[in-house]
Amino acid sequence: METWRTYFLRSPEKFHVQSAPLRPLLVKELWEILGGQALWIMLLLMCPLIGYSFFQATALYGEASVAGLQSAVLASGLSPLDGVLVPTFGAFYVAVTLLFPFVAIRVLGQEKESGALRLLVQLPYRSPTLIAAKLAAVLTAWVFAGIPALSALVMWELLGGHLSAPETVNLVCGHLLYGLLVGAIALFAASVAESAATAAIVTLAFTIGSWVLDFTVAGQPGLLAWIASLSLTQVLHTFEQGLLPAGLVAGVCAVVFGFAALAAVWLPPGVRHRNKVIRSIVCVFAVALALGLVTQIRLTFDVTEDRRNSFPLADQQLLATLPQPLVVTVHLAPEDPRYADLQRNVLSKLERTVPKVSIRLAGRQSPATDAGGDRYGEVEYGYGAHSDISRSTSPREILPLLYGLAGVSSPAPAPGSDYPGYPLVAGGGAALFWFFFGLPLWIALAWWWSRRLPKPIAARLSRRFDHEHN
Amino acid sequence: MDGVLLMVSPDRPIPRISTPAMIAASTSEQARDLPLLRVDSISKRYADQTILSDVAFDVLAGEILGIIGPNGAGKTTLLEAVAGQQPVDKGHVRWQGNPLPPSRRREAIFYLPDGVRPYEEQPVTRVLTFFADVYRRATCEVEDVIESVGLTPVLHKRVYALSKGYSRRLMLALGLLTPHPLLLMDEPFDGFDLRQIRAIVDVLRRDTIEGRTLVLAVHQLSDAERVCDRFVLLADGRVRGVGTLNDLRAKTGIADGNLEDIFLALT
Q1: A contacts of B61 (beta carbons < 8 Å)
Q2: For the complex shown, is ipTM > 0.90?
Q3: A-chain residues within 8 Å CB-CB of B103?
Q4: Range A90-118 average pLDDT
Q5: What pLDDT, on the 0 to 100 scale, is given for residue A295?
Q6: Residue B83's domain spans which residues?
Q7: Which of B112, B117, B213 is the closest to A8 by Cβ?
Q8: How far apart are CA A305 and CA A117, in angstroms?
Q9: pLDDT bucket at A365, cuts 50 / 70 / 90
Q10: CATH number of A313-406
Q11: What is the pTM (predicted TM-score) of this model?
């Protein structure tokens, strides 16, 4: 007790900020997240939103399954990923886009508005440590926000539905990255903005701005296509298709790290704006460099059970052995639906399979304006000294063409590799009851529990208080 | 123990300052040597308005120094600048003669701002526990601090439900839980009645006896006169006088004047 009071004799070079315990900081962030109303209100709003989406998805899937139960061919088109998981998590995406920013901003904005941040920055933690703890709090909030969506998965299982673990984990992973991205932007906005309201405007400009990009410039050629690719929702689309792209994961992590670093730069109140701007520019350049590097990562995994993003296994194995470079020249405008078909059915699969492949887009203009319109619609495949032309967008026609160019025979289809499909006709009444009554009740109880005084402290201090006043 | 707690210099003797009289004697001796903190020509402007102009003064170990001035004199800006929470246009701070850059001020100085209700949604106990855990305080230390500032009746309450006075007590308790040798407090008596001020003054005195140095920004001259050992009189961002009450009386030639008379004479 006496020792810690006698600091004034110490020389300043002896002072360090080192190894302060992290646990109290993390515990504080957790209680701050749980102590506010924003998280619980968001959770209560998410229950009916996700519940109704799940109910609708299950009902539509059931209607489609009636025919699927009669025919194996129709059944093979019934995938729970497309029919139930993506629509249900779509509601979760809406909530994360519109509601989650307010929860994430609160992690920092509340302390900023109450003045507690001026105490926090004096504690023996560096700014990056404080922001890392807050990002951990945002992650915790996302996990809580995911409870209704995860309960929908449990409900689907209970109804007898099929879940493919890789597909499900991959989809959750995509939403986690999207949530972290929104959370990191919110933290950055809260760090820069003077008020939580301003931070909310900045964050919603990113999230709702992404919607605007999706609706207005998606599918447009040239610069607009590049602008459309900046939409945050692009992160999700790949995962919803059942792909796990290593480059995208690394890129999103780099951007999340970049926004967190910017938040740490703008956190300390005693640093000149000019210095903060300089440090921010360094951060932006570092992230841009990292993004430039991760775009070179082309490793992508198709985690779907029906292998919709890949050629049949036998073709896949044969194409992977082609030693020479394959050059594909496409005479189509990017906005042409045939190009989208070709890209989805053939080109993206070739890129993930053939070791050396280059794709060139020669038809930048639609046939109406293309001077060399004779060749519009053609796709030229060059392998070694041979080349051939096709207008098809189907792998059934293009794969034999490629085998012909390479001088190999088509492989025999692997037995037992057909996707059976998972038709299910199930009533969703119980799910509606759960999402509209059961889960909200549990959430309300958890909210009440979180507002109780911590028991050990309360008991000890009450004893002391009673002792003093009796 | 970590952080600043580990930084005791074992090769230097630690003097025990046991009474206010000894503090006065000790401070006058140390003034001839090195001050604990030297604020050197700090200036700060917002757009075309000068907030602080060449503000300079020393803080002596173990004293309670009052930054005195009316509202708008620049007291809060000065404390924030000294604490490293406000960038300045000119000037620096030295700790026992060595430069202390703004990024390292928090290692030696803890600043309790005015009007802050930290973590409003949390119960008082949880806020105290957070600070106690960060600085690894023993339970008995926390209980002593709670008792000394009179927070016991409101431990169960959430911070937003505290009265202004209890909110101040909470801030004071947080300050007392920190291990920093120098504590800056902005308007620590705002919201207290006379009895409460006396009780808080006793707490602050005990803290200085145990080795802490305090700098208080106070706009109520009567409160300041009751509490502080020395004064820095601030008006319009300029220092108008520094010293003990007797020093200032001598400077103004008002032999039996109180702080109010002296302040009016100097500003």
Answers
A1: 8-9
A2: no
A3: 268, 270
A4: 94
A5: 86
A6: 3-108+180-266
A7: B213
A8: 49
A9: low
A10: 3.40.30
A11: 0.85
